[in-house]
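Supplementary Methods. Inverse-folding protocol.

Structures were first reduced to a discrete structure-token string of length 188. This string, shown here, constituted the complete conditioning input.
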């Protein structure tokens, strides 16, 4: 996972209330929840907190950093099935339920389904070598219309971008609200 290059800056620029908590903001920073293919205008994320439509963001770092504008804000989360899920089931065994909550919309080939509840397995900070990975469960509000195979990737609706991205980006790619501008006015 990449580490972001974050900056704090005066917001709004030029205002000074003599209270640093009020006068300074730190950039938003989060990671992608799933890989992004070049040409996509959708980013799967674990959080949308603090984002607004029309906000500029930067996806990636270094030579592959790309400017984008948030066009839509959807639901969060992305994961893989750990077991086959037959048609008619509402209980999905997944690698991680992080980012999913009651009401989350999940995009499937036949349309949207909704999360009814999430059951996260307890995890150890340092798991024993060779220990089985814990399994989380996502329960849907209605049964699956079609079966899904173990390893199937599904996600919330994510962030819609106004333009498609040029590069592929791996899961965990850093997304920030804007590149730091030391010595110049910050762009929040």
């Amino acid at each position: 996972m990449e580490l972001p290059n974050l900056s704090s800056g005066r917001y709004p620029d030029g205002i000074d209330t003599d209270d640093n908590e009020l006068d300074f903001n730190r950039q938003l920073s989060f990671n992608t929840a799933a890989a992004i293919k070049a040409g996509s205008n959708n980013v799967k994320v674990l959080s949308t907190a603090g984002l607004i439509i029309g906000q500029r963001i930067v996806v990636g770092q270094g030579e592959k950093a790309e400017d984008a504008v948030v066009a839509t804000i959807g639901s969060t989360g992305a994961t893989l099935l750990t077991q086959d899920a037959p048609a008619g089931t509402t209980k999905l065994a997944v690698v991680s339920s992080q980012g999913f909550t009651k009401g989350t919309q999940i995009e499937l080939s036949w349309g949207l389904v909704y999360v009814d509840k999430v059951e996260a397995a307890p995890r150890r900070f340092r798991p024993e070598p060779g220990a089985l990975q814990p399994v989380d469960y996502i329960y849907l509000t209605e049964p699956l219309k079609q079966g899904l195979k173990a390893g199937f990737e599904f996600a919330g609706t994510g962030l819609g971008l106004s333009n498609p991205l040029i590069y592929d980006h791996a899961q965990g790619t850093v997304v920030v609200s804007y590149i730091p501008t030391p010595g110049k006015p910050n762009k929040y």
